[in-house]
Amino acid sequence: MKTTIKILMFFVIAFSLSVFAQSKDDYSNEPGYVDFGNLSSYMKSDKVTEVNIESYLLKMVSNLTEKSDPELSQMLKGLKMIKVYSFDANAKNSEQLMNKIDKIDNSLTSKNWDRIVKVRSQKENTNVYIKTTPDQKTIVGLVVTSLEKDGESAFINIVGNIDMDALGRLGAKFDIPSLENIHK
Amino acid sequence: MKQQKIIDDKYLDKIISAAYGDSGIWDKIKIYRDAKRYPEVKKLLDEYRATSDEVKNFANVKCPDDLLNKAEKEIFNSERKPANFSMVFRKPVFSSAALVIILVIAALLIFKQPNHENKYSKAEVLTAELQVKESLGLVGKIFKKTQNTISYDVLDKQVVPPIKKGMNVVNNLLNGG
């Protein structure tokens, strides 16, 4: 009887823990996840974009766009999270942002992220990183850090299986006028 | 001719109990009666009674102090030992209570699971779609800008001029100019 109770207790505890683990949408363990730290102090400008879409909502969007945009739908199926912070950079915060970008760069390169693009000039600083699986076959994370002095700064993290070709095509496709117009 | 009494283990236990004075009154009467009838029963009863008397006549021996101290120490230490966690659950009350608590927690976790189906409205999904497109657009814009920088600023301004200059030098050399 005691043994039965013990076994029962073990299964209940194990089940509870697994349920608890599932209930929490924790992406911090995902290899493609990056914590940009606190950016709230920069998010006070007039033009601010903050996007944080998690897997279930991405799946719903994927389902919604299945007929209207099959390529977008297909790409979203593999994604687990899209996180975007975009805001105006000015003379005041440019230096701090530059330091932040450098810190992120050090952190990512030390964690075996591949920096595929690095543009550094007086006017701008843009880095693009990808995280691949150990067999190098799948991209599981993308990070973009961008700072345009007296322009726009962006911190982007996409987590999940990323099809870079599709991302490039869709990126070009959705480089939508509304965003351009905001600038002008 | 006297019959022989069959003495099995059960009967022997009764004889021993009677000899030590532990048996009930009826068993005692029965054994004493049998002892009168059967010499083998009497012999066994006498033997055990003699042993019983010897045991009863043992003088009280004082236990050595060091042994007493050692025993006290053992008892004291065992009392002070922190309660083993598993010992608590050996008690049925605690194990049942723990089981109930765990079941309640498990039930709460299951039923309190966020219901994704109802979590997002159609409007929220449409907004998310726009946000996804905007995010991808932003990525595309940065890629495009980077591409422009690489092709125009880096290639056109920094790579091509030195190559052109180098080619001119080579041309001049070849043409003897």
The number of distinct structural domains of chain B comes to 3
Query: Poorly predicted ranges of chain B (pLDDT <50, ≥5 residues)?
Result: none
Beta-strand portion of chain A reads 25-35%
Order of helices and strands of chain A: HEHHEHEEEEHH
As an assembly, this protein is heterodimer
DSSP E strands of chain B, number: 0
Identify low-pLDDT runs of chain A: 177-184
Instruction: Tell me the greatest interface.
Output: A-B, 51 and 40 residues
Whole-number total of structural domains of chain A? 1
Percentage of residues in helical conformation of chain B:
over 70%
Class based on secondary structure composition and strand pairing of chain A: alpha+beta
Average the pLDDT over all residues of chain B and give the rounded result: 78
Characterize the overall form of chain B.
elongated
Please give the number of β-strands of chain A: 6
How large is the radius of gyration of chain B? Answer: 51 Å
Description:
The complex is a heterodimer of chains A (184) and B (177). By secondary structure, chain A is an alpha+beta fold. Chain A has one domain (28-183). Chain A is built from 6 helices and 6 strands. Chain A has helices spanning 2-23, 55-64, 70-77, 91-110, 164-173, 177-183, and strands at 48-54, 79-88, 114-120, 124-132, 139-148, 152-162. Chain A has a 6-stranded antiparallel β-sheet with strand order 1-2-6-5-4-3, sandwiched between helices. In chain A, helix 2 (55-64) packs antiparallel against helix 3 (70-77). The longest helix of chain A is centred in the N-terminal third of the chain and has 22 residues, at 2-23. Chain A is globular, with a radius of gyration of 20 Å. The model of chain A is unreliable at 177-184 (pLDDT under 50). Chain B has 177 residues and is mostly helical. Chain B has 3 domains: 9-56; 65-111, no CATH class; 123-175. Chain B contains 8 helices and no strands. The longest helix of chain B is centred in the last third of the chain and has 54 residues, at 122-175. The radius of gyration of chain B is 51 Å and the shape is elongated. Chains A and B meet through helix 1, strand 1, helix 2, strand 2 and strand 4 of A and helix 6 and helix 8 of B.
